[in-house]
Fold this sequence. Notes:
Blueprint: H1 2-23, H2 28-41, E1 48-52, E2 55-60, E3 63-67, H3 73-76, H4 80-90, E4 103-107, E5 123-127, H5 131-140, E6 145-147, E7 150-151, E8 158-163, E9 180-187, H6 189-196, E10 200-205, H7 211-215, E11 225-231, H8 244-253, E12 256-261, E13 267-272
Parallel strand pairs: 4-5, 4-10, 5-6, 7-9, 10-11
Antiparallel strand pairs: 1-2, 2-3, 8-9, 11-13, 12-13
Amino acid sequence: MNLLKKIINRVNQKLLSEVLKIISKQNEKFFELLFNLYSKFVKSVKVKVKFISPNYYVIDKDKKYKFFPIERIKFYAKGLDYRFKILREEYLLENIKFKDDDIIIDTGANNGDFYYCFNQKIEYHGFEPSPVVFKNLEYNVKNQNLYQLGLWKNSNEKIEFYLKDKSGDSSMIPINNYEKKIYINTITLDEVINKINKNIKLIKLEAEGAEPEILSGLVKNLNKVEYLTIDCGFERGVKLESTIADCTNYLLKNNFKMVQFAKYRTVVLFKNNSFL
């Protein structure tokens, strides 16, 4: 039964995607009008869209959530709470017992969705190099630690960053069909943890294929990290390779164990054996 529901959800997402392809070619207000009309007749769509130039917002009850690009509305269509529930499942967070003041580092923070996966009052550190998407992160996540920097193997480098914001696939690794190339400043996880100067409960690592380079910048402070949840999907470079072998080998050699592998996404949860 659960499998059937998941299949139906996938079909609904596909239908919504096809609708979006058509209406997103029109102007912004037309998109808003048609999407909100669509939401009235499709029970699974729980939100509305508001365009306030130059940005789009998801309207869910009394919450206004800024997002980009418009194609990402499909992730929020069933409601913000549902979106965050799915992310908790995908990143295997049910395997971790969180408490207030736990420190979470979010690599590839995008619009800030991961911050809302926690019921506890966490200390959040979000990193998003894209200038456009970082503005969304600032709007959605208040009173936390946000950085328009790229996590990398070295600090204080100025490296090429390949923007692909429209599909959420921007990367520090050269990719196909990128929209624009810019230069970003970098920092290592070692330096970040030095500044925090506390143990880290969880690092979410999602860097569109640059996961091994980011992990290589976590050496001296790896023993201060209890969990890592890593998206090792087939996104690295022009060949769209997975980073699961490199990430797994590195962590297993450094006293981590694999806790669980996600069912429907190439996400792996690791735990530091030094933590009871």
